[in-house]
Write a structure and sequence with these properties.
heterodimer, A: 131 residues, mainly alpha, 5 helices, 0% strand, extended, B: 246 residues, alpha+beta, Alpha-Beta Plaits, 3-stranded mixed β-sheet, two-stranded antiparallel ribbon, 8 helices, 30% helix, 15% strand
Chain lengths: 131, 246
Protein backbone atom coordinates (compact mmCIF):
# COMPACT_ATOMS: atom_id res chain seq x y z
CA UNK A 1 0.00 0.00 0.00
CA UNK A 2 3.05 2.24 0.44
CA UNK A 3 3.20 2.96 -3.30
CA UNK A 4 -0.28 4.49 -3.15
CA UNK A 5 0.70 7.14 -0.61
CA UNK A 6 2.04 9.74 -3.12
CA UNK A 7 -1.17 9.42 -5.12
CA UNK A 8 -3.22 9.95 -2.02
CA UNK A 9 -1.21 13.05 -1.17
CA UNK A 10 -1.58 14.40 -4.68
CA UNK A 11 -5.32 13.85 -4.61
CA UNK A 12 -5.52 15.66 -1.29
CA UNK A 13 -3.46 18.56 -2.69
CA UNK A 14 -5.62 18.74 -5.80
CA UNK A 15 -8.70 18.83 -3.62
CA UNK A 16 -7.21 21.76 -1.70
CA UNK A 17 -6.50 23.62 -4.91
CA UNK A 18 -10.10 23.37 -6.10
CA UNK A 19 -11.51 26.86 -6.01
CA UNK A 20 -8.09 28.49 -6.31
CA UNK A 21 -7.39 30.02 -9.70
CA UNK A 22 -5.16 32.70 -11.13
CA UNK A 23 -8.03 34.94 -12.13
CA UNK A 24 -7.57 38.48 -10.83
CA UNK A 25 -10.34 40.16 -8.89
CA UNK A 26 -13.00 42.16 -10.72
CA UNK A 27 -11.32 45.31 -12.08
CA UNK A 28 -12.82 48.62 -13.06
CA UNK A 29 -13.18 48.82 -16.82
CA UNK A 30 -10.88 50.97 -18.93
CA UNK A 31 -12.02 54.22 -20.48
CA UNK A 32 -10.85 53.35 -23.98
CA UNK A 33 -10.95 49.95 -25.65
CA UNK A 34 -9.00 48.23 -28.40
CA UNK A 35 -10.43 47.78 -31.89
CA UNK A 36 -10.49 43.98 -31.74
CA UNK A 37 -10.90 41.36 -29.03
CA UNK A 38 -7.59 39.85 -30.05
CA UNK A 39 -5.71 43.08 -29.36
CA UNK A 40 -7.38 43.30 -25.97
CA UNK A 41 -6.39 39.73 -25.14
CA UNK A 42 -2.77 40.36 -26.13
CA UNK A 43 -2.65 43.57 -24.09
CA UNK A 44 -4.15 41.90 -21.03
CA UNK A 45 -1.85 38.89 -21.21
CA UNK A 46 1.27 41.01 -21.68
CA UNK A 47 0.42 43.51 -18.99
CA UNK A 48 -0.58 40.92 -16.38
CA UNK A 49 2.83 39.34 -16.62
CA UNK A 50 5.13 42.22 -17.55
CA UNK A 51 3.69 45.59 -16.56
CA UNK A 52 6.22 46.08 -13.75
CA UNK A 53 9.23 45.44 -16.01
CA UNK A 54 7.88 47.63 -18.80
CA UNK A 55 7.16 50.48 -16.41
CA UNK A 56 10.57 50.22 -14.76
CA UNK A 57 12.37 50.26 -18.12
CA UNK A 58 10.30 53.17 -19.36
CA UNK A 59 10.81 55.04 -16.10
CA UNK A 60 14.59 55.09 -16.48
CA UNK A 61 14.46 56.00 -20.16
CA UNK A 62 12.15 58.91 -19.48
CA UNK A 63 13.94 60.19 -16.39
CA UNK A 64 17.51 60.00 -17.67
CA UNK A 65 17.16 60.36 -21.42
CA UNK A 66 13.93 62.28 -21.81
CA UNK A 67 12.31 59.62 -24.00
CA UNK A 68 8.61 60.33 -23.66
CA UNK A 69 6.88 57.97 -26.08
CA UNK A 70 3.29 57.22 -25.07
CA UNK A 71 3.85 53.45 -25.07
CA UNK A 72 4.23 52.08 -21.53
CA UNK A 73 4.00 55.53 -20.00
CA UNK A 74 2.44 55.57 -16.54
CA UNK A 75 0.34 58.56 -17.61
CA UNK A 76 -1.08 56.41 -20.38
CA UNK A 77 -2.08 53.63 -17.95
CA UNK A 78 -3.69 56.06 -15.53
CA UNK A 79 -5.51 58.10 -18.16
CA UNK A 80 -7.18 54.98 -19.50
CA UNK A 81 -7.68 52.79 -16.44
CA UNK A 82 -8.67 55.33 -13.79
CA UNK A 83 -11.75 57.50 -14.30
CA UNK A 84 -11.16 61.24 -14.41
CA UNK A 85 -12.20 62.91 -11.16
CA UNK A 86 -15.56 64.64 -11.16
CA UNK A 87 -17.50 66.58 -8.57
CA UNK A 88 -19.36 63.44 -7.53
CA UNK A 89 -16.59 60.90 -7.58
CA UNK A 90 -12.81 60.83 -7.18
CA UNK A 91 -11.01 57.48 -7.33
CA UNK A 92 -7.76 57.68 -5.33
CA UNK A 93 -4.94 55.20 -4.89
CA UNK A 94 -6.14 54.62 -1.33
CA UNK A 95 -9.49 53.28 -2.56
CA UNK A 96 -9.74 49.51 -3.14
CA UNK A 97 -11.58 50.06 -6.44
CA UNK A 98 -8.61 51.96 -7.98
CA UNK A 99 -7.45 49.86 -10.93
CA UNK A 100 -3.88 49.35 -9.68
CA UNK A 101 -4.83 48.86 -6.07
CA UNK A 102 -7.49 46.17 -6.59
CA UNK A 103 -4.93 43.61 -7.74
CA UNK A 104 -2.11 44.77 -5.52
CA UNK A 105 -4.34 44.36 -2.47
CA UNK A 106 -5.29 40.91 -3.67
CA UNK A 107 -1.68 39.77 -4.03
CA UNK A 108 -0.42 41.82 -1.05
CA UNK A 109 2.02 43.95 -3.05
CA UNK A 110 2.74 47.43 -1.81
CA UNK A 111 3.70 49.90 -4.55
CA UNK A 112 4.96 53.41 -3.87
CA UNK A 113 4.40 54.89 -7.35
CA UNK A 114 1.58 57.06 -6.07
CA UNK A 115 3.55 58.64 -3.25
CA UNK A 116 4.81 60.94 -6.00
CA UNK A 117 2.91 60.21 -9.22
CA UNK A 118 -0.62 61.41 -9.87
CA UNK A 119 -3.01 58.52 -9.22
CA UNK A 120 -5.80 59.95 -11.39
CA UNK A 121 -6.06 61.70 -14.76
CA UNK A 122 -6.24 65.48 -14.89
CA UNK A 123 -9.88 66.58 -14.95
CA UNK A 124 -10.88 67.27 -18.53
CA UNK A 125 -13.67 69.71 -17.70
CA UNK A 126 -13.44 72.99 -15.87
CA UNK A 127 -16.09 71.97 -13.34
CA UNK A 128 -14.97 72.00 -9.72
CA UNK A 129 -13.46 68.81 -8.40
CA UNK A 130 -13.75 67.35 -4.93
CA UNK A 131 -10.40 67.62 -3.12
CA UNK B 1 36.94 114.55 -13.68
CA UNK B 2 37.37 116.35 -16.97
CA UNK B 3 34.53 117.21 -19.29
CA UNK B 4 35.92 114.93 -21.94
CA UNK B 5 35.91 111.81 -19.76
CA UNK B 6 32.36 112.63 -18.60
CA UNK B 7 31.27 112.64 -22.22
CA UNK B 8 32.99 109.35 -22.85
CA UNK B 9 31.20 107.75 -19.93
CA UNK B 10 27.86 109.14 -21.11
CA UNK B 11 28.47 107.85 -24.59
CA UNK B 12 29.42 104.45 -23.25
CA UNK B 13 26.35 104.38 -21.02
CA UNK B 14 24.04 105.34 -23.86
CA UNK B 15 25.45 102.66 -26.11
CA UNK B 16 25.10 100.07 -23.36
CA UNK B 17 21.46 100.94 -22.62
CA UNK B 18 20.65 101.03 -26.31
CA UNK B 19 22.16 97.62 -26.67
CA UNK B 20 20.05 96.27 -23.83
CA UNK B 21 16.90 97.61 -25.45
CA UNK B 22 17.86 96.13 -28.82
CA UNK B 23 18.48 92.69 -27.39
CA UNK B 24 15.25 92.87 -25.40
CA UNK B 25 13.37 93.65 -28.61
CA UNK B 26 14.92 90.58 -30.13
CA UNK B 27 13.73 88.54 -27.16
CA UNK B 28 10.19 89.89 -27.27
CA UNK B 29 9.70 89.38 -31.01
CA UNK B 30 7.21 86.50 -31.04
CA UNK B 31 8.62 84.61 -34.01
CA UNK B 32 12.06 84.38 -32.43
CA UNK B 33 10.74 82.76 -29.29
CA UNK B 34 8.69 80.19 -31.17
CA UNK B 35 11.70 79.02 -33.12
CA UNK B 36 13.90 79.09 -30.05
CA UNK B 37 13.07 75.67 -28.60
CA UNK B 38 12.80 72.88 -31.13
CA UNK B 39 10.48 70.02 -30.23
CA UNK B 40 12.47 66.86 -29.68
CA UNK B 41 10.90 63.75 -31.23
CA UNK B 42 9.45 61.61 -28.41
CA UNK B 43 11.67 58.63 -29.11
CA UNK B 44 14.88 60.64 -29.32
CA UNK B 45 17.12 60.89 -26.26
CA UNK B 46 18.29 64.26 -24.93
CA UNK B 47 21.37 65.36 -26.85
CA UNK B 48 24.85 66.44 -25.71
CA UNK B 49 24.83 68.98 -28.54
CA UNK B 50 22.34 71.12 -26.67
CA UNK B 51 22.79 72.96 -23.42
CA UNK B 52 19.65 74.60 -22.10
CA UNK B 53 19.94 77.85 -20.23
CA UNK B 54 18.13 81.02 -19.38
CA UNK B 55 18.89 84.69 -19.12
CA UNK B 56 16.94 86.94 -16.76
CA UNK B 57 17.03 90.73 -16.97
CA UNK B 58 16.33 91.89 -13.40
CA UNK B 59 15.91 95.51 -14.52
CA UNK B 60 12.85 94.50 -16.53
CA UNK B 61 11.30 92.38 -13.79
CA UNK B 62 9.02 94.97 -12.20
CA UNK B 63 7.81 92.50 -9.54
CA UNK B 64 11.23 91.05 -8.76
CA UNK B 65 10.23 87.75 -10.31
CA UNK B 66 7.05 87.07 -8.33
CA UNK B 67 5.07 86.25 -11.48
CA UNK B 68 7.73 83.70 -12.38
CA UNK B 69 7.49 82.13 -8.93
CA UNK B 70 3.69 81.94 -9.11
CA UNK B 71 3.87 80.32 -12.54
CA UNK B 72 6.32 77.74 -11.16
CA UNK B 73 4.03 76.97 -8.22
CA UNK B 74 1.07 76.48 -10.56
CA UNK B 75 3.05 74.26 -12.90
CA UNK B 76 4.63 72.04 -10.24
CA UNK B 77 2.29 72.37 -7.27
CA UNK B 78 4.82 73.26 -4.57
CA UNK B 79 4.63 75.83 -1.79
CA UNK B 80 1.36 74.73 -0.22
CA UNK B 81 2.14 71.46 1.54
CA UNK B 82 -0.53 71.16 4.26
CA UNK B 83 1.59 70.09 7.24
CA UNK B 84 4.84 71.88 6.49
CA UNK B 85 5.88 74.89 8.54
CA UNK B 86 6.91 78.01 6.67
CA UNK B 87 10.56 77.01 6.95
CA UNK B 88 9.85 73.51 5.65
CA UNK B 89 7.81 74.51 2.60
CA UNK B 90 9.38 73.56 -0.68
CA UNK B 91 10.99 76.47 -2.46
CA UNK B 92 11.90 75.76 -6.06
CA UNK B 93 12.42 79.45 -6.79
CA UNK B 94 12.96 82.16 -4.20
CA UNK B 95 12.93 85.92 -4.52
CA UNK B 96 16.22 87.35 -3.32
CA UNK B 97 16.49 91.08 -2.69
CA UNK B 98 19.67 93.00 -2.04
CA UNK B 99 20.39 96.65 -1.49
CA UNK B 100 23.40 98.64 -2.52
CA UNK B 101 24.78 100.26 0.64
CA UNK B 102 25.76 103.49 -1.09
CA UNK B 103 22.96 104.10 -3.59
CA UNK B 104 20.20 102.35 -1.60
CA UNK B 105 19.13 100.80 -4.89
CA UNK B 106 17.22 97.56 -4.32
CA UNK B 107 17.43 94.70 -6.78
CA UNK B 108 15.27 91.58 -6.65
CA UNK B 109 15.86 88.45 -8.62
CA UNK B 110 14.36 84.97 -8.76
CA UNK B 111 16.92 82.34 -7.75
CA UNK B 112 16.30 78.76 -8.73
CA UNK B 113 18.52 75.79 -9.58
CA UNK B 114 21.26 77.35 -11.70
CA UNK B 115 21.81 74.14 -13.69
CA UNK B 116 25.58 74.21 -13.21
CA UNK B 117 27.88 72.51 -15.67
CA UNK B 118 29.88 71.08 -12.77
CA UNK B 119 27.09 70.72 -10.26
CA UNK B 120 28.10 70.18 -6.62
CA UNK B 121 24.81 68.35 -5.95
CA UNK B 122 25.73 65.75 -8.56
CA UNK B 123 29.22 65.35 -7.06
CA UNK B 124 27.99 64.59 -3.57
CA UNK B 125 24.97 62.38 -4.31
CA UNK B 126 25.70 58.89 -2.90
CA UNK B 127 23.18 57.07 -5.10
CA UNK B 128 23.37 58.85 -8.43
CA UNK B 129 19.87 60.24 -7.97
CA UNK B 130 21.13 63.77 -8.49
CA UNK B 131 22.32 63.85 -12.06
CA UNK B 132 22.85 66.10 -15.05
CA UNK B 133 21.01 65.17 -18.21
CA UNK B 134 22.90 65.20 -21.51
CA UNK B 135 21.40 68.58 -22.40
CA UNK B 136 22.61 70.20 -19.17
CA UNK B 137 19.43 70.02 -17.08
CA UNK B 138 20.21 69.04 -13.49
CA UNK B 139 17.54 66.70 -12.10
CA UNK B 140 16.73 64.47 -9.14
CA UNK B 141 15.74 60.90 -9.97
CA UNK B 142 13.31 60.47 -7.08
CA UNK B 143 13.10 56.74 -7.78
CA UNK B 144 16.61 56.33 -6.40
CA UNK B 145 16.80 59.36 -4.08
CA UNK B 146 17.17 58.19 -0.47
CA UNK B 147 16.48 61.61 1.02
CA UNK B 148 19.91 62.08 2.62
CA UNK B 149 19.93 65.77 1.67
CA UNK B 150 23.68 65.95 0.97
CA UNK B 151 22.81 67.83 -2.21
CA UNK B 152 20.91 70.44 -0.25
CA UNK B 153 24.01 71.05 1.84
CA UNK B 154 26.27 71.15 -1.20
CA UNK B 155 24.20 73.58 -3.29
CA UNK B 156 25.58 77.12 -2.97
CA UNK B 157 22.28 78.54 -4.24
CA UNK B 158 20.00 76.90 -1.63
CA UNK B 159 18.01 75.69 -4.60
CA UNK B 160 16.81 72.34 -3.29
CA UNK B 161 13.98 71.41 -0.96
CA UNK B 162 12.96 68.26 0.87
CA UNK B 163 9.42 66.91 1.04
CA UNK B 164 8.59 66.02 4.65
CA UNK B 165 5.05 64.71 4.34
CA UNK B 166 2.71 62.48 2.40
CA UNK B 167 1.28 64.42 -0.51
CA UNK B 168 -1.94 63.83 -2.42
CA UNK B 169 -3.18 64.92 -5.82
CA UNK B 170 0.13 65.93 -7.36
CA UNK B 171 0.35 67.38 -10.85
CA UNK B 172 0.74 64.58 -13.41
CA UNK B 173 3.62 66.41 -15.10
CA UNK B 174 5.50 66.97 -11.85
CA UNK B 175 5.68 64.04 -9.42
CA UNK B 176 6.63 65.13 -5.87
CA UNK B 177 6.66 62.92 -2.84
CA UNK B 178 7.69 62.26 0.74
CA UNK B 179 11.33 61.58 1.54
CA UNK B 180 12.81 62.96 -1.66
CA UNK B 181 14.68 66.11 -2.59
CA UNK B 182 13.39 68.32 -5.37
CA UNK B 183 14.32 71.47 -7.24
CA UNK B 184 13.71 73.39 -10.44
CA UNK B 185 13.84 70.92 -13.31
CA UNK B 186 13.77 73.64 -15.98
CA UNK B 187 10.27 72.32 -16.81
CA UNK B 188 11.87 69.34 -18.50
CA UNK B 189 8.48 67.94 -19.53
CA UNK B 190 7.75 71.17 -21.43
CA UNK B 191 11.23 71.50 -22.92
CA UNK B 192 11.02 67.97 -24.32
CA UNK B 193 7.79 68.98 -26.07
CA UNK B 194 9.45 72.08 -27.51
CA UNK B 195 7.80 74.51 -25.11
CA UNK B 196 9.28 77.17 -22.84
CA UNK B 197 9.56 76.69 -19.07
CA UNK B 198 6.52 78.06 -17.20
CA UNK B 199 8.47 80.92 -15.56
CA UNK B 200 9.79 82.15 -18.90
CA UNK B 201 6.27 82.21 -20.32
CA UNK B 202 5.18 84.27 -17.33
CA UNK B 203 7.96 86.84 -17.83
CA UNK B 204 8.69 86.76 -21.53
CA UNK B 205 9.47 90.50 -21.48
CA UNK B 206 12.39 89.96 -19.13
CA UNK B 207 13.64 86.43 -19.57
CA UNK B 208 14.71 84.23 -22.43
CA UNK B 209 15.28 80.51 -22.62
CA UNK B 210 17.31 78.67 -25.21
CA UNK B 211 20.26 76.60 -26.29
CA UNK B 212 23.56 78.01 -25.02
CA UNK B 213 25.51 75.80 -27.43
CA UNK B 214 23.76 77.16 -30.52
CA UNK B 215 25.52 80.39 -31.57
CA UNK B 216 22.40 81.50 -33.47
CA UNK B 217 19.94 81.23 -30.60
CA UNK B 218 18.63 84.50 -29.14
CA UNK B 219 20.12 83.71 -25.76
CA UNK B 220 23.59 82.97 -27.15
CA UNK B 221 23.55 86.12 -29.28
CA UNK B 222 22.53 88.25 -26.31
CA UNK B 223 25.16 86.65 -24.10
CA UNK B 224 27.97 86.95 -26.61
CA UNK B 225 27.16 90.59 -27.28
CA UNK B 226 26.52 91.87 -23.78
CA UNK B 227 27.72 89.14 -21.42
CA UNK B 228 25.85 88.45 -18.20
CA UNK B 229 26.47 87.71 -14.57
CA UNK B 230 26.49 84.38 -12.81
CA UNK B 231 25.65 84.28 -9.12
CA UNK B 232 28.82 83.28 -7.27
CA UNK B 233 30.85 83.20 -10.46
CA UNK B 234 33.90 82.74 -8.21
CA UNK B 235 32.88 79.12 -7.67
CA UNK B 236 33.49 78.39 -11.35
CA UNK B 237 30.35 76.26 -11.76
CA UNK B 238 29.50 77.64 -15.21
CA UNK B 239 25.82 78.08 -14.49
CA UNK B 240 23.12 77.68 -17.11
CA UNK B 241 21.08 80.53 -15.57
CA UNK B 242 22.51 84.00 -16.13
CA UNK B 243 21.39 87.44 -15.03
CA UNK B 244 21.51 91.02 -16.18
CA UNK B 245 21.44 93.84 -13.67
CA UNK B 246 22.82 92.15 -10.58
Amino acid sequence: MMFLRPFALLTLFAALLVGCDSQPPELMSAVKSFATKEQTAVHVAEMRRNHMHLLMHKRDETMHQGIRTPKYSLHGCIDCHVPAPTQQRVVKHTDPEHFCVTCHLDVAVKVDCFQCHADRPTPTTTEGVKP
Amino acid sequence: MTEQSDNLIDRYRRRFLGGLAASAAMVVAPGVILREVQAKPDEQAASHKIRWGMLIDTNKLDDGGEAMITACKNEHGWGNDPHASAAQQAQWVRKVTFKDALTKHETSLPVMCQHCETAPCVDVCPTGASFKRADGIVLVDKHICIGCRYCMMACPYKARSFVHEHLENQKPQSPRGIGTVESCNLCVHRVDKGEQPACIEAASHAAVFGDLNDPDSAISKALSKYGAQQIRADLGLNTGVRYWGI
